[in-house]
């Protein structure tokens, strides 16, 4: 065997190996699925912690206000009534301002002050000003009697509202009994 023969033989063996391993590699490349270790990219976004949001205010419950009445303070209520003085007088026979006089309002029929131009909304709302009705109205006048013309946002704090109600109760010759 001369050198040329040896070279030919080696060449043949090498080609054979190339074919065998080459095709295996090609098959691997074509058929092997390359699954990523994890689908997608891990984006560097950490979940934003909710900011210390205020807990939503508890829904208004008139019963809670009524329950506070026995211990409510008419003195504090008189203080809150300063918000009303712009439009209401509290004294017996007091003048009509933007709003009606509120002497004896607890227990009186709605829209009953003679000479005061009540809105249709107020006039068509039946019933008396019980503590319960006053609490609902004074908590949120617009929602309680839609279309009434009292431009007042309402007393949102239950305790303050209770104080105001016991103050209004005192605006009478004989104050109405507290609800049981
Ligand atoms: C900006 C003026 C204004 C303010 C402030 C105001 N009111 Fe009035 N209020 C009115 C008007 C006007 C009416 C009549 C509403 C209607 O006829 O629709 C009214 C009606 C009322 C009524 C019904 C009276 C009735 O005879 O039927 C009550 C009770 C009342 N207000 C209480 C209060 C209290 C208590 C406050 C304070 C916490 C207050 N209001 C603040 C203007 C005001």
Report on the architecture of this protein.
- The protein is mainly alpha-helical and 180 residues long.
- It has a domain at 62-169: Cytochrome c-like domain (Cytochrome Bc1 Complex, Chain D, domain 2, Orthogonal Bundle).
- The protein is built from seven helices and no strands.
- The chain has helices spanning 3-31, 62-68, 74-80, 120-123, 131-139, 141-144, 158-169.
- Helix 2 (62-68) packs across helix 5 (131-139).
- The chain is rod-shaped.
- Heme C binds at residues 83-84, 86-88, 98-100, 102, 105, 110-113, 118-119, 121-122, 129, 134, 138, 148-152, 155, 164.
What does the radius of gyration come to? Answer: 42 Å
CATH class of the domain at 62-169: Mainly Alpha
End-to-end gap: 124 Å
| Element-level helix/strand string | HHHHHHH
What is the CATH topology descriptor of the domain at 62-169?
Cytochrome Bc1 Complex, Chain D, domain 2
Low-confidence stretches: none
CATH architect. name of the domain at 62-169:
Orthogonal Bundle
Secondary structure tally: strands:
0
Overall spatial form: rod-shaped
* Helical fraction: 40-55%
Total helical elements:
7
Structural class: mainly alpha
| CATH fourth-tier homologous superfamily of the domain at 62-169 | Cytochrome c-like domain
Q: If you average the pLDDT, what whole number results?
A: 87
The largest β sheet comes out as:
none
The distinct ligands, each listed once, are:
heme C
């Amino acid at each position: 065997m001369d050198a040329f023969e040896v070279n030919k033989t080696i060449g043949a063996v090498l080609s054979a190996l190339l074919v065998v391993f080459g095709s295996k590699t090609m098959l691997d490349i074509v058929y092997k699925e390359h699954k990523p270790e994890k689908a997608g990219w891990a984006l560097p976004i950490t979940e934003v912690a909710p900011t210390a949001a205020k807990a939503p205010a508890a829904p208004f419950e008139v019963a809670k206000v009524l329950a506070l009445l026995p211990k409510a303070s008419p003195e504090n209520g008189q203080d809150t009534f300063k918000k009303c003085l712009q439009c209401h007088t509290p004294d017996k026979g007091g003048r009509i301002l933007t709003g009606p006089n509120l002497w004896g309002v607890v227990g009186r029929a709605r829209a009953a002050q003679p000479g005061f131009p009540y809105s249709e909304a107020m006039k068509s709302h039946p019933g008396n000003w019980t503590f319960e009705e006053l609490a609902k109205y004074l908590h949120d006048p617009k929602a309680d009697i839609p279309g009434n013309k009292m431009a007042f946002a309402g007393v949102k704090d239950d305790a303050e509202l209770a104080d105001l109600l016991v103050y209004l109760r005192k605006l009478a010759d004989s104050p109405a009994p507290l609800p049981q």
